[in-house]
Amino acid sequence: MGAVTPRPTALRRALARRRYDWTSGAGSAARLHGWWDSRPGRRYLNRLITAAPPDGTPGGVSLAYRGFAEGPHYVLTHLRAQVEQHGGGPAEIVDLPPRRWPGLLDQQDADLLVVGCSTARARSLPTERSVLLPYRIDLNIEVDEDPEVMRKRVSGNERRQFAKLRRERDWAWKRTRDPEDLLHFWERMHLPTMAGRHGADTRSTDWVTAQECLFGQGRLFFVTEEAKPVAGVLCRWEPETRSLTMRLLGVLDGDEAHYRSGAVKAVYYLAIEWACDNGVRWLGLAGGESFPGVGVFQFKRRFHPTVGLPVDHQGGKALWLRVQRDTPAVRDLLVDTPMFGLTPDGRLEAVYFADADRPARTSVTAASPGVDGVRMIDLDEFLNGR
User: Are 147 and 141 in contact (CB under 8 A)?
Assistant: First the structure.
């Protein structure tokens, strides 16, 4: 990696704090950000995603997204993958001229239309053939001071497997305040891991923000293996709520071997242990998309986090998904894509689609604290506007 200036100027540090409050702050910062994103006259991203069999055979799936510019990176990764899977080929992405509200609802030649907007606007949109989803979700563990209580939330098999690996790998947990360790984490762990796993779709922060708003107001931890750091996590600490939130994670040199060995799993187990011993009330596992089939959600739910809406500006946003065309591929996609839905009173529920030939994929479980109930949608009724 290239050299990084370890000591930013006072101005850059102040700007980083302002930027962090804007992107991740709660309360008034979140409300101001939400207002700015939805202000009158705002132009919104207009993108068409299409996938079709490469051999030219009939079929394919298309999805139009209109809304906040960060949507394709933060809320549509799983949906894009589903479009590719059920369309039979790689996605073709076309950016069309931006739209203003209410032009986001104009007819588009696509099977699915997804609009990312404020929750208030989303609730005013037609309900026929549509579902309302949270823009993002947050996952937080309520920490008990008794480590044994926390351990028992995880299945016995999981606990035994981790204990075995911990002994074999000699895993230990190390907290550090050394700026050189932060630089090592940034250059040797976080950046290579993000590049290797996400490529052009990487979502992270910048170096100055990592220094000032996370390391300066948080905690840096390493998982060591035979005394050598092999994985790390940089967390933000909020003393008012005693909340420790995992923000940046990485493994040494981005090496997938550390995922296969279980070192990443060790980050979560050992973070929970440390939280129990150090007065943490809530341990944040960071956010996720509104689809329980995402692998990261299925991994994190084994720690029994509470699923909720983000406290930052994303908590006041929603996705309005409308089905515009009834085809076998669209039905397959909907059945294979369980979702978190927003109820009229703002609660989260699990949403599954099914028809006579396609049973609901309830094996993709969304059951977690904070998810209140299950909604089964019959596609024949749904697609006929009932």
Answer: no
Dist CA 82 CA 331 (whole Å)? 12
- For residue 112, CA distances in Å to 57, 65, 94, 339 come to 21, 8, 15, 15
Packed helices 328-335 and 77-87: angle between N→C axes, nearest 10 degrees: 140
Q: Kindly report, residue by residue over 351-365, the tens digit of the pLDDT.
A: 999 999 999 999 999
The model's pTM is: 0.91
User: Measured in Å, how far apart are the chain's first and last C-alpha atoms?
Assistant: 56
Q: In degrees rounded to 5, what are phi and psi of residue 126?
A: -60, 145
Both structure tokens of 331: 């039905």
> Which structure tokens are listed for 26?
């709660």
**What's the pLDDT tens digit per position in 94-105?**
999 999 999 998
CA-to-CA distance for 193 and 185, rounded, in angstroms? 11
Angle between helices 28-37 and 10-24 (to 10 degrees): 80
